[in-house]
Amino acid sequence: MKQLIVISIFFSLSALADINPFTTDGCSKFIDGPLTGKGYEWLHCCEEHDIKYWSGLGGEKAQDEADIELRQCVIEAGFPGYGESIYRAVTAARPVNSRLKVSFRWGYAWDKVLGHRELTAEELESVKQMTTSIPIGIENYRKSKGYPEQTLEQQEAIVKIIERIRNWLTLMLL
Question: Which of the two residues, 112 and 16, has the higher pLDDT score?
């Protein structure tokens, strides 16, 4: 029985060893938005986008949705021109980013380049376990730049995204 537990723990840790904690670089190679009394106006949009890109969950369809949601979020923040520019930039870079080991590719949580393949059960479980690193990654980035903390509304949006990911993963792992 002890050997079974040790083997079980080993496989759990080895699956988690393949995934890196969540990190964000804000809006990657773009500006994080103008600083106003509410903070950087569209940085939260890029953080939400990075959460989706980090895991690589859902393949190309989910990537399409993440890019469209990024554009819409920036537009709703009051910057339609920038929303379109950011959207064009991320979609134009996708063919290269999906094949190279760059920090802003789809599935950048993984040391290996995933492309758009479906994740294995072990990888799905790793994502589920590592979602706890998402708020820390956002906080670390903001502190490193001297940016204001997320607003309560932005924090709540991140919590909802994490909950959706965990719920989706729970269903996938049944």
Answer: 112
